[in-house]
Amino acid sequence: MTEKETVDPQLQDFILAETQKQRFQVLVHGLTDTCWETCMGRPSTRLDSKTETCIMNCVERFIDATTFITRRLMNTTKYRSEAPLEFQ
């Protein structure tokens, strides 16, 4: 038996799901840090409208950038799989 045949498919699915959760948590943590540092001046009991707008824009730009990068990587991977490099 090869190693792939002995691995439990449910275990593989669980590991994949947990890995995706971890990546999402890292992404959210990075988003929180970036937007906090960019937008928060002096913390207070309420957000003023300027800070609230800054945080909303920061989150939207972060999501836009992440989506753009993800799509670019997927397209690059797809292109490479359709037309593998040939070495001469």
Can you walk through the features of this model?
With 88 residues, the chain is mostly helical. The protein contains three helices and no strands. This is Mitochondrial import inner membrane translocase subunit. It is a peripheral membrane protein.
Pick out its properties.
Helix Hairpins; elongated; Tim10-like; membrane; 3 helices; Tim10-like_dom_sf; 88 residues; mainly alpha
Quick structural summary:
Helix content is 78%, strand content 0%. With 88 residues, the protein is mostly helical.
Task: Reconstruct the topology from this structure.
Layout: H1 3-6, H2 9-39, H3 49-82
Helix pairs in contact: 2-3
**Oligomeric description of these chains:** single chain
Order of helices and strands: HHH
Give the distance, in angstroms, between the N- and C-terminal Cα atoms: 37 Å
Shape designation:
elongated
The Rg value, from CA coordinates, equals 21 Å
Please summarize the sheet with the most strands: none
The number of domains is 1
Tally the beta strands.
0
Strand composition percent: under 5%
Structural class: mainly alpha
User: On the 0-100 scale, what is the average pLDDT?
Assistant: 82
CATH first level: which class? Mainly Alpha
Q: Architecture, according to CATH? A: Orthogonal Bundle
* Unreliable segments of 5+ consecutive residues: none
For this structure, the CATH topology is: Helix Hairpins
CATH superfamily: Mitochondrial import inner membrane translocase subunit tim13 like domains
- Count, helices: 3
Q: What percent of residues adopt helix (DSSP H or I)?
A: over 70%
